[in-house]
Amino acid sequence: MNHNPSIAEWTLSLAPMMDWTDRHFRYFFRLLSKKTYLYTEMVTTGAILKSANPSRFLEYDKIEHPIALQLGGDDPNLLAEAAIIGESFGYDEINLNVGCPSDRVQSGAFGACLMKEPKLVAKMVSMVKTKVKVPVTVKHRIGIDGRESFDDLFEFVREIKEAGVDRIIVHARIAILKGLSPALNRTVPPLRYDDVYKLKDYFPELPIVINGGILNFDSAKFHLKYVDGVMIGRAAYENPYQFLNADCDFYGEIPSSLPREEILLQLIPYLESEMERGTKAHHILKHILGLYQGVDGAREYRRYFSDPKHFQQSAKDIIYTFLSLREERKLSVAK
Prior knowledge:
43% helix, oxidoreductase
């Protein structure tokens, strides 16, 4: 079962997470890792096609490449139309969401509930592939309640593979759609990594990325013995600094020793630019609260960047005031 993948640009990726992986977090994350493959939050076809200004949902900074647009929907024609627009914005991949278990998504008959309709998902893949030149991928669960067996998973993947899917990202848990919240769906259903490994055995030519419960690089490297790529979600958001050496560990780049303080300084031009556009400082700074996770002063850091009174300052003053306070704290502790 041992698998030795070549280094693809998506060998390590950051999971799409609603309300978390917006363009502000992705820009901040790029200050840590230039190579980790990024995904947008899920954007519904309706949000794109019914908007007079789709850039509101599709805008991103050029430093975010490589980056995939994740689409949510269940109509092959509408997905194709949205994908065309996404490709015109320069996204490197179109990803179809067949894994989200939220009530909001279920009410629109897409997300994880589509796993019970493999032929429809295959049609979605096929239709989008006829309209765009970039890779078309699917992110899905290993099953849903009522369709939980490996045979069900195998049939689902067989259908979308025959439709021409370029890569699949598999969250190694089923989604329990009845009686379990989205938050609990991320932890309660047991992880079944072996099912994802087995998929790779049955579909050796299909690139497969594993997702779910992967907390660190040691775990990621273990999974890469059996599959082609690893996607990390909440662990990346809650402790982003661990990705400082992602480019070294997974892509052969030179190791980095960039201190956290330097990352904050590098964020200033972006913060200034966005605040000049009218973006509230909080909408950006809420995404950097994990930067000092696990180190001395983490609590003070989170408290500072969560306090609205600091957001009345200029971008430079917000950052420099914190760095001055941190230096004072160091001196105080040293005495």
